[in-house]
Design goal:
The protein has a four-stranded parallel sheet with strand order 2-1-3-4. Strands 6-5-7-8 form a four-stranded parallel sheet, with helices on both faces. It has three domains: 91 residues, Fumarate Reductase Iron-sulfur Protein, Chain B, domain 2, CATH 1.10.1060; 146 residues, Rossmann fold, CATH 3.40.50; 118 residues, 3-Layer(aba) Sandwich (Rossmann fold). The protein has 379 residues and is α/β, with parallel strands linked by helices. The chain binds iron/sulfur cluster (2 copies).
Length: 379
């Protein structure tokens, strides 16, 4: 008798975009690659997929279904091409429809709905970070719309990234502007949390706004917005030429519009999952670090195999035990390798690493820097 409802769960996951779960042959490679078992979490990717295939209950707890950071390491290595993130997303969407998503994530979803950002901050303060700076307003006459992600718009630590970037863009004479308070979250984390309906509405609203303003080219501060604009908005008719800011800065460097050098520090680079594995941008950030004159170090697992910071897929807003924070393990590795600076180029990664450096009591000796900050210091 229970076979019917179980099958219904499995079929619902498939219908919500997780249909590749039936391709899984239970080899377990995904569980072996996933960072969670290495930090003594009960989460095993293979088991989650199995539960989805069989429609078994019990997958919906915070430390199982909501553990996945959507880092894509398993997806890129699955021999059966199971779109594991889509399976997770579909399972979360099913739970979200019943209103049973984790409380913290429900707060984030509600804030995006009410305020257009996940930080429970008023919409009308979105452009406050730019006060006192020479930041043009986008009116369709500029080459680029500068999309400042919600985190860099509101979070005080992250605002420094947006400020550093506009300093560089102004120095290089880039034609750009911000839209500001009319902007809303790109919706990337929302979709990964399972709020598909709100994501679709946001995508359409943002695309209409960008088109109405005459946007053709976009610079993003965040790899998450970058991936969403390049890989997900085209599904909804949003066709823009999008660059992550590191790609543009590398181009400006090659064109001689910025000159770098003299940053004589040992810098270890962390690949943000959404810039690296999701978007295959591995070289430009490294070339920028080299151009700064730094001694570049690498984590043992880097580029396509890099370990996630732990902040994707909604995890930025969820509680994680200190010993289970991926960024804490990376901070320890950075210290062991003699790094003076951890450099990255994603606001989520910066938040995760800043917290871990403090937690490890190394925040006085190990700087956590966005590449935009390192470069702006040299102008
Ligand atoms: S790696 Fe792919 S085929 Fe192997 S268990 Fe994981 S999802 Fe299944
Ligand atoms: S996407 Fe990353 S965190 Fe999620 S299951 Fe795969 S390896 Fe683990």
């Amino acid at each position: 008798m229970p076979a019917t409802p179980f099958l219904e769960v499995s079929e619902a996951i498939a219908l919500m975009g997780g249909d590749t779960l039936y391709q899984c042959m239970q080899c377990g490679l995904c569980s072996g690659l996933c960072p969670w078992p290495g930090v003594e979490s009960p989460f095993r990717t293979r088991q989650l997929i199995k539960m989805g295939q069989l429609g078994l209950e019990g997958f919906e707890s915070d430390d199982i279904l909501y553990a996945c950071t959507t880092c894509k390491l398993c997806v890129n290595n699955c021999p059966r091409e199971v779109a594991i993130i889509d399976v997770v997303r579909a399972m979360r969407a099913m739970i979200a429809e019943t209103g049973a998503a984790p409380a913290m994530l429900r707060t984030i979803m509600g804030s995006i709905h009410s305020n257009g950002n996940p930080w429970s901050e008023p919409r009308e303060k979105r452009e406050n970070w730019a006060e006192g700076l020479d930041v043009p307003r986008f009116d369709g006459s500029q080459e680029y719309f500068l999309s400042v992600c919600c985190t860099s718009a509101y979070d005080p630590r992250s605002q420094a990234i947006a400020k550093a970037l506009v300093k560089i863009l102004n120095a290089a004479g880039v034609s750009y502007g911000i839209i500001g308070n009319e902007e809303s979250c790109c919706g990337e984390a929302l979709r990964k949390m399972g709020d598909e309906e709100q994501f679709m509405g946001l995508a359409e609203k943002n695309i209409n706004l960008f088109n109405d303003k005459g946007v053709k080219k976009i610079i993003t501060t965040s790899p998450h917005c970058f991936t969403t604009f390049t890989q997900e908005y085209p599904e909804f008719g949003g066709e823009f030429e999008v660059v992550h800011y590191t790609q543009l800065l590398k181009q400006l460097l090659d064109e001689g519009k910025i000159s770098l050098g003299g940053y004589e520090k040992k810098v270890i680079y962390h690949d943000p999952c959404y810039l690296g594995r999701h978007s295959e941008v591995f070289d430009e950030p490294r070339e920028l670090i080299d151009a700064c004159g730094a001694e570049r170090l690498e984590f043992g697992n880097n580029k396509g195999m890099a370990m996630c910071c732990g902040g994707g897929g909604g995890r930025l807003w969820m509680e994680t035990e200190p010993e289970q924070r991926f960024s804490t393990h990376k901070v320890r590795e950075a210290v062991d390798k003699g790094a003076e600076v951890v450099a990255t180029c994603c606001p989520y990664c910066i938040n995760m690493f800043v917290d871990s450096a403090k937690g490890e009591n190394v925040d006085e000796t190990l700087e956590i820097k966005d590449l935009a900050e390192i470069i702006a210091e040299q102008l």
